[in-house]
């Protein structure tokens, strides 16, 4: 049967099948079919026994695995060449050094033909011959019977690179097919395929955006809106994220009533890339009200290798930083490395944390550990370690030319080339009416978190005023709102209002999986105060004894009345408190004014009172006076 291999037709992009003409060949039990499928995926190439074993059994092969593979090969040869004497059955599966080779016409293996068609289509698309590219992509798509490759995924090892690579190729080609089809006015032709992709990859935003666009272009605008709502709900529930730019762009086009004949932007395949992730992942739960900041910061990382996200304590810097890292993950093939440094105290501990996260000697220098590959290094919660982190980052930026660094901190590192992006609290509701409150990001964040611990909690006309008051009392700080919402697991809303009246001491629900300073407002703000130098701390506590808004001259007068040194130091101290996100500097009709968040002011006042009381206790036994005054 010299021509047996030429007559053979093989499918693996669905069920694993082999045919002579129209007659199907029985390929045997699942493991045996898996051996044949793997050989078919590499038709014409030598495949070693070790490669077969690794693909099918992973790192846990059975005993005498080579003998088992030989048995499967012998049975397959018998099925493929039944009329050939056993010793001559090598016309389809030939023996080669250390393994086997399937001698099939590559163009008669659907997976190989798919690869050739998509390669031709890419060349045609690059040459701007979209009509022929669309035709080639269409032929390639028709070869697929099961996008999930269910039989291969069960028969081969579940983590098989071949299966994953094939499915990625299908998605990439499918997105290109849909994109070109929409540009050519072939929305009705590509819609079934776009729907198929959307069902196969429910959490791939590029895929969902393509299906959304296809629905819009075929006039199914109501179905498109319903689909977007379903995808957004699923992203929130399963991944804890809001829709990204790919899906948001086509949705915004829909909202702006772009005509159906004018294609909303359709994403390409770049968003499908996956790079390694080392260390803590993005925060669980939707990132409410931060889409603009995440997009802006992600864009800034494209042109800045060092970027620091700064903001007041509890404003969500960590969540934003990790969301940005997730957004740009595909741009760093060597991976994203996240170090949570809240409990780290020195450079040696930082280096050890990096080595443990990435893999390497604990004593290795960060530059050596990170190497030359394109990585994103995320350093989270570093304000208490600012000088040490600045020195490490300086070395990394200079020594690792392909590494970018994203830092979250209360203050910038003040390094050359550093880009700084400041974020603040979530916006506060302007009124307490339901129609106004329900559209506020701070309110939406609180309600979402409340519903997690108190099923059925909703914003209603009867509780809108209370929720708005809570948001105002807590400055719209996500950490504070999250702590307040967590109390609803045991408290009623009325009881929560009493807690919020004294948030520093009464908002401390039981929490696991959070840094220590994120388990209560007092600990979060106390950490910020503890990071200050003596004179900065003294001024902050002084500011806590007066109004939350003030001018430079007002602070000078208060400093002169309570301190022994010159008021010349006051402007610099105010600048440092502003840099450390404990003050906000505003310029308005009345000139420059400074403002403290309500919770920062409370903490400063509390610390001032504690210090005053401690001064009293120390002074009375000696002088009987009233004690130290700030």
Automatic annotation (TrEMBL):
Keyword Transcription listed: yes
Q: Biased composition, Basic and acidic residues: where in the chain?
A: 609-619
Example of a GO biological process term: regulation of DNA-templated transcription
Pfam families this protein is in? BTAD, Trans_reg_C
Per the database entry, where does the chain bind DNA?
1-104
GO MF annotations for this entry? DNA binding
Which CDD domains does the record match to this protein? BTAD, trans_reg_C
Domain of life from the UniProt record:
Bacteria
Looking at the record, the residues that make up the OmpR/PhoB-type domain are 1-104
Q: Which InterPro entries match?
A: AfsR-DnrI-RedD_regulator (IPR051677), BTAD (IPR005158), OmpR/PhoB-type_DNA-bd (IPR001867), P-loop_NTPase (IPR027417), Sig_transdc_resp-reg_C-effctor (IPR016032), TPR-like_helical_dom_sf (IPR011990), WH-like_DNA-bd_sf (IPR036388)
Kindly state which keywords UniProt assigns to this record, in alphabetical order. Answer: DNA-binding, Transcription, Transcription regulation
Annotated SUPFAM superfamilies = C-terminal effector domain of the bipartite response regulators (SSF46894), P-loop containing nucleoside triphosphate hydrolases (SSF52540), TPR-like (SSF48452)
Family, similarity comment: Belongs to the AfsR/DnrI/RedD regulatory family.
Q: What is this protein called?
A: Predicted ATPase
Question: Which organism is the protein's source?
Answer: Micromonospora yangpuensis
